[in-house]
């Protein structure tokens, strides 16, 4: 093969366009990945819809990549070999020199590259990736069902750890990330409360089937005060609602890269040592932890498959809330 197919964003707010391109050759420290599946993440929507500033254009979106190593540049370390199955996540490169990188906080790097945002991603048949930021995926799990673990799982895991170890946990926005984390929390013996769009019976049923003890609309209060809540829906109005749902010293974690403005709320809703924190990106250590835990917890993802050429349809379905679980593109 000398050419590849890719769905390309040329201008924010416009549909992706299918292109045929020469297959690139990996440079020093890089690998060429032949893609088997790529998850469709809400962050991709933020890129396509122009809600994230300064993408590198034109750009191939997608950062939940599962594929095989098809070629290797010089200097690739870490034991990777041709044919190995690997995962490529959102964090695609860091400088390694800034204060954040040198203190174990590479998720806050001052000069990062992000897959599908500032370097081409996985809405394609092939992608180039920095080998240091790819993860071996041994085993025979289904490629499409594995793909959502590379962001919904990884960013979700970082959000989950930041929420603390309380026994009662609220998940606002029961999509790709929440349907994975509900299984982790239930496996660990926590009580999960799922908050969906009002009247979304399908999402509430899915939540209960995955271990949630209660599921209702995001405008409702849970049956008991929560130790913590994680907000995955990009809706700022959910922050004051979640604050009302958590108990004293409870924590509200904002797990998305973009959110609409948070409306004003009375200080008394924050008082008594409640906290609001945000999550930014991920570290490679997050990935190693979560990818080792996922099979132990028996995580099963609910996915809806789309051919690569139907990437625009997948994005539209995600935007309009028509997907239970995660959407995945298959080249």
Write up what this structure looks like.
The chain contains nine helices and 17 strands. The protein has 331 residues and is an alpha/beta fold. The chain is globular. The two termini are 14 Å apart. The mean pLDDT is 97.
* Quaternary structure annotation: single chain
CATH topology assignment of the largest domain: Quinone Oxidoreductase, Chain A, domain 1
CATH architecture of the largest domain: Alpha-Beta Complex
CATH homology group of the largest domain: Medium-chain alcohol dehydrogenases, catalytic domain
Count of helical segments? 9
The average pLDDT score comes to 97
Distance between termini? 14 Å
Count of structural domains: 2
Low-confidence stretches: none
**C-alpha geometry:** globular
- Binned strand content: 25-35%
User: What portion of residues is helical?
Assistant: 10-25%
In the CATH hierarchy, what is the class of the largest domain? Alpha Beta
Sheet/helix structural class = alpha/beta
- The radius of gyration over CA amounts to 19 Å
* Order of helical and strand elements: EEEHEEEHEEEHHEHEHEEHEEHEHE
């Amino acid at each position: 093969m000398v050419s590849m197919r890719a769905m390309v964003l040329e201008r924010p707010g416009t549909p992706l366009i299918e292109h045929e391109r020469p297959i690139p050759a990996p440079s020093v420290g890089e690998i060429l990945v032949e893609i088997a599946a790529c998850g469709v993440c809400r962050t991709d929507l933020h890129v396509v819809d122009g809600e994230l500033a300064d993408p590198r254009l034109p750009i191939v979106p997608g950062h939940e990549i599962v594929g095989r190593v098809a070629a290797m540049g010089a200097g690739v370390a870490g034991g990777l070999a041709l044919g190995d199955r690997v995962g490529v996540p959102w964090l695609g490169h860091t400088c390694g020199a800034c204060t954040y990188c040198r203190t174990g906080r590479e998720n806050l790097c001052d000069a990062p590259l992000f897959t599908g945002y500032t370097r081409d991603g996985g809405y394609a048949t092939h992608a180039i990736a920095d080998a240091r930021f790819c993860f071996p995926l041994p085993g025979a799990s289904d490629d499409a069902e594995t793909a959502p673990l590379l962001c919904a799982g990884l960013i979700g895991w970082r959000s989950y750890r930041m929420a603390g170890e309380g026994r009662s946990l609220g998940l606002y926005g029961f999509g790709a990330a929440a349907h994975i984390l509900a299984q982790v929390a239930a496996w660990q013996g926590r009580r999960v409360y799922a908050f969906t769009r009002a009247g979304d019976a399908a999402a509430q049923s899915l939540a209960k089937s995955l271990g949630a003890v209660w599921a209702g609309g995001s405008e409702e209060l849970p049956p008991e005060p929560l130790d913590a809540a994680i907000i995955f829906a990009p809706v700022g109005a959910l922050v004051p609602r979640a604050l009302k749902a958590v108990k004293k010293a409870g924590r509200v974690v904002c797990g998305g890269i973009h959110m609409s403005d948070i409306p004003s709320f009375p200080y008394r809703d924050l008082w008594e040592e409640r906290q609001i924190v945000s999550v930014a990106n991920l570290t490679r250590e997050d990935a190693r932890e979560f990818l080792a835990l996922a099979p132990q917890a028996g995580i099963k993802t609910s996915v809806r498959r789309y051919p690569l050429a139907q990437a625009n349809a997948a994005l539209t379905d995600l935007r309009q809330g028509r997907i239970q679980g995660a959407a995945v593109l298959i080249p």
